[in-house]
Amino acid sequence: MSSESFVPPIARNQTEVFAVHGADPEVLAYAMAKYSRSALSMRESLTEISSQRAEQFLNTFYFQYGHRSIADLAHIAFAVERLSLMAAIVLVDEQRWDGQERSTRYQNFSKSGWYFPNFGPDSDSAQLYSKTVENLFAAYQRTTSAVFAALEKRIARPDTLSPEAYARTLKARAFDVARYLLPLATNTSLGQIVTARTLESQVSRLLSHPVAEIRDLGLKLREAATSPAWNVNAQPAAAFVEMLAAHEVAPELAAEAALLLSREVRTAPTLVKYAQPCDYDILTRADLAQAADETLKGLPIADAPVVDLVERTETLEVELASTLLYSASRYSYRQIRDLVAQLPAARVSEIIEVGLRRRGKHDEALRAFHAGAALRFDILMDIGGFRDMHRHRRCVQIMQPFTTLHGYETPTAGDLGGDANILAEAGVLSAYQLAIEASHAACAQIESSAAPEAAQSSLYLLPLATRVRCLFKMDFAEAQYISELRSGPAGHFSYRRVAWEMFKAIERQHPTLAQHIRVTDFTKPIDLLQR
User: Fold this and answer.
1) What is the pTM of this model?
2) How far apart are CA 357 and CA 367, in angstroms?
């Protein structure tokens, strides 16, 4: 054979790329998993696979052999509607999560309704709960209207902006202020697209939660994944089948079409069916609370800045022990770290052991064991702004329990800048403060007087103005990304301030690196008519 006619073997094959549509999530996961066990193409695999065969395969390799990566190949879309803001925060607390939630910045929540927990025979707590929530919603409505009117007086409509766009923009600015009054009981809705693997851990985590609504949410997610899914094409498909039957066109084809178009699809009938409460999570939560009480007993909570970039001076062992105690307490990371660093090495090891001793064969270690990140930001901010920061997945977040101990935020200048006080200008500053202080008092009263399960329900009364503490561990790239994205003028002034403070903290400790961050100066005024 001459050299001119020779074709290298690799040139005989050309890469082919095609999208796949219409396969059930578990069937598609099985087909993709077969690449590692079969030479069949995707088209050949999907043609020969049935739902029953997929279930048999997954029962063998997923559950018996622990090949959990297979479940990463099955992606499932869910609509979760009329859940509380508190339940939504818990639901989305996954490092591998994609979704969108109803925005408190652009929608009026006055008619969304709210979650009412079961107080049993404790009618006093039930009445106080209802009264407090209604008071917060009334304050929310008054504040929205008053701030909108104040902004109208302050900001003239330019000729280039239509009256509708002008009103819409100012209303969004008013919601930015009024949302501080929304209680965690407020109903919201969200959509999520997650892998079956993430869904399984999400369901287990929800079922392990101490709050009844959140446990019930876990049950509903598991049921939705294993029951027939809602088919967006069900009505037109049924109409098409009826048309074929009425015209008696190709009876065999009509029967096949009816079978195909009307069949029930269960998105993850196999991969999620065994998701149960996690004893490791439940028992360790109580163990860590006890360890934190013993270790930090009598220690006053020290004042802390909004953002504290805690420099790395401790060993990995001290970081792990400190993070475990942080997750079960209300103290700053710096305060805990400094104390733990003085403990004997044996005691530090004991605290780490508390976080691992109940771990089962298939349990992942607690999130607190994701340690060693270069940058640790301990952030204390309002819950409303935290919910936006919570969406960042390329970092480790150790969130502390909700509490009234850290007080609450009162928006002053907002995006107006200078010495402006928008609540005072709108004439609602006193009413705002009274509503939030009354909600905190009611929360404390119910927590102290109600049964244990109902006492957890007192947290629903906390408005979004309430401060929450969370430790964010990340690399420089993520710190750069958050500082640049969240400091932008289109963002809410709460997290814009936090992003700016993150940048300033980096600038103090790493000035050479800080010059590469394209941050927007939070201290400079912005155009309120630009979103």
Assistant:
1) 0.90
2) 15
